[in-house]
Amino acid sequence: MNNKFVWTNKYSVGIQLIDEQHKHFFEIVNKILDFVDKELSTKEELFALLNEFENYAMYHLGTEEEYFDILKYPDAILHIDNHNKYREIIKKYINRAREETEIKKIAEEVASYSSSWLSGHILEVDKKYTKFFNEHGLK
Questions:
Q1: Which has more confidence, 64 or 101?
Q2: Nearest to residue 29, comparing CAs of 100, 84, 95, 109?
Q3: 33 class by beta-carbon count within 10 Å (0-12 exposed, 13-18 middle, 19+ buried)
């Protein structure tokens, strides 16, 4: 049994839309963990989940980056660089999933990596924009 991600208020960045997106991001990671725990699962199911996961991750990161642009967030370049590194790693996982037969192993790696990356990213990087965003009317 894999450890599911449980949302607590310590992950809140004080911006409702972004908090909701972060919660949904983790829900998808938890769905991947459910997939790994299932006895009978297909490669098609994995790809559907990985596609949902990748699309949502890119959508969410894009939302933050749109706010950086609109509000002229001063630390945007460093933050976007952090996002781009994550995007590259996720693309590598998905390419591996297309080539390998050990799909559960890859799914577990994606979920584990994403869960730790996102929780750390929220606490160490995202929370830095809370005050700036709030001061610019985003709550």
A1: 64
A2: 109
A3: buried
Long-range CB contacts (within 8 A, 24+) of 100-108 = 103/41, 103/43, 103/46, 104/35, 104/36, 104/41, 104/46, 106/46, 107/32, 107/35, 107/36, 107/46, 107/49, 107/50, 108/2, 108/32, 108/33, 108/36
Nearest CA to 107 out of 93, 121, 89, 87 is that of 93
Q: Which of 20-24, 31-35, 74-78, 126-130 has the lowest mean pLDDT?
A: 31-35
* Rounded CA Rg of the chain: 16
Amino acid, single-letter form, for residue 123: L
- CB-CB contact of 35 with 45 (8 Å): yes
CA distances to 15, 32, 135, 139 from 109, rounded to whole Å, are: 29, 10, 38, 33
Is there a contact between 91 and 35 (Cβ–Cβ < 8 Å)? no
For residue 101, pLDDT beyond 90: no
Judged against a pLDDT cut of 70, whether residue 1 lies above it is answered with: no
